[in-house]
Amino acid sequence: MMNFEEMGFTPGILKAVQELGFEQPMPVQERVIPLMLGEDRDIIALAQTGTGKTAAFGLPLVQMTDTELNATQALILCPTRELCMQITGDLTDYARYTGKLRILAVYGGASIDNQIRELKKGVHIIVATPGRLIDLIGRKAARLSAVTTVILDEADEMLNMGFLDSINEILEEVPAGRRTLLFSATMSTEIAGIAKRYMSDPNEITIGTKNASAENVTHGYYLVHAKDKYKVLKRIADSEPDIYGIVFCRTRKETQEIASKLIEDGYNADALHGDLSQAQRDTVMQKFRVRNLQLLIATDVAARGLDVDDLTHIINYNLPDDNEVYTHRSGRTGRAGKKGISISLINVRDRHNLKQIERIVKKPFKAIQIPSGSEICGKQLFHWIKKLETVVTEHQEIEKFLPEITEKLSGLDREELLRRVVSLQFDRFLDDYRSGEEIISPLDRDDNFKGSDRKGARKEYSGNYKRLFINLGKTDGFYPEQLIELVNKNTQGKKVPLGKIDLLKTFSFFEVEAEFADYLIEALNNSKFNDRRVAVEIAQEKPEGFRESDRSEKRHAKWSDRKPDRKRDGRKKDSVKPLRWEKKSGKKDKKKKSW
Length: 595
Ligand code: AMP
What we know:
Number of strands: 20
Bound molecules: adenosine monophosphate
Strand content: 5-15%
């Protein structure tokens, strides 16, 4: 494998490369750089974003540009303003030690007068979106007569965005003797058309498999009822405290709705869609880029301009209408050698589409289980504990109060103190999952997509549920987890699909797949829960004492409580209660008493 030192770069470029922390060339760089520096042929490179292609063309380009010559020598065309700025920023980094190289980004949506002024000063490399460049050519501000290198970056995206005519028009302006490089994630007939028309005997390079998504991306899906989608989205976010991802929705309206709900529920999220002004979109993208936002809810079109590495998750709230779009979405994670996951929330009807997408990305999609409330609580708790372990505590202000604080808390031993701190931090959060029902997938939990085609291999349930009454409630320490345990314990491992669970103080209701109702009633009746005899029966239509409003009122209160501080970590808690889910350890009763 060749390293950067062996590639023929000047010391100035090598120094910049080193400062950027690039140790080894990435595959696209290994292939493109020697060709660019050593030969004069056109190049077609099929490479996904995130493969290091900017440096592949950018480093040689910076080295080859003559800063003594006051003329535009290179033109880079790219689809969006974002990418335009990104490339310009990257090239500026590469040119840190290479004399006075002038690079200018020209794109729509910004003042054209400023761009004209800058162009008049003389620019060595123009990085442009096609529409704006045509404007500038028309005004005689951009002069391309001395251009020797043209780079078409993300050519497939430019064509998707309808820039074919503009590209043709621009290329007609550039001297015929130039060298042309074309970068694209996919090879389509239109791309081949451009290559045929404007390139001569190009070197064709393919990085990875053509049309296949990045190596480092795994693909998974949750099979969910449409009504549960939002809840599942929250669970994904809750079970990944460090999540940094884009949630793709189909419409602007849906994008806004999901984002608003998430914000109301206290997540670091915001919307990015075409109904926002350019200034609003810029603000959102900037917040996301600096990780002020963890979740960006976006439409495909709006997210095009956003180029962020390090994304941990791509979430397809809906599968895209066009299966190819899936590859663009998932290719936004797993970049720069990092791992990423692309998750799709699908319903039974989407499974056919998913199969087709599986074929396109050439990777199997894994069915993922919806995380249970207690799994999520555990993850959140340990995430917080990790923070606690590493927190810096050198605050003078705290020192001052420490003696008094120590004195006040002297009656509490270490374990007790910890329990209280954790309760305070997590009470409301745990409460969410403690009283919330588990989400049931439309099919058997360990459904595997691959197997779902085998007739009779798995039982598909009717989706009809019966509502049962049980004589246990929250004051008995009876929560979804306990219900599920009770059912499992008394059904000898037989899978009994449960539906919605409504917990009340002293009794509860839960749904069970209709065909299991009689069996379950018999199995549970006369069983014991904490020495109490369990009684289960078919629920009456309007059970005495049951108010549907109980839960919704309570939830509402919780949401509005969350609003002021938005971030989970900063949420204020006002009550101290024992952690119910610690019950598993068998210490429940003791703890309860101590409170
Ligand atoms: P790109 O495909 O050009 O958007 O590059 C993706 C990411 O890879 C960017 O964050 C680059 O800074 C980074 N990168 C490019 N080349 C290298 C390299 N040789 N080693 C490590 N990171 C790199």
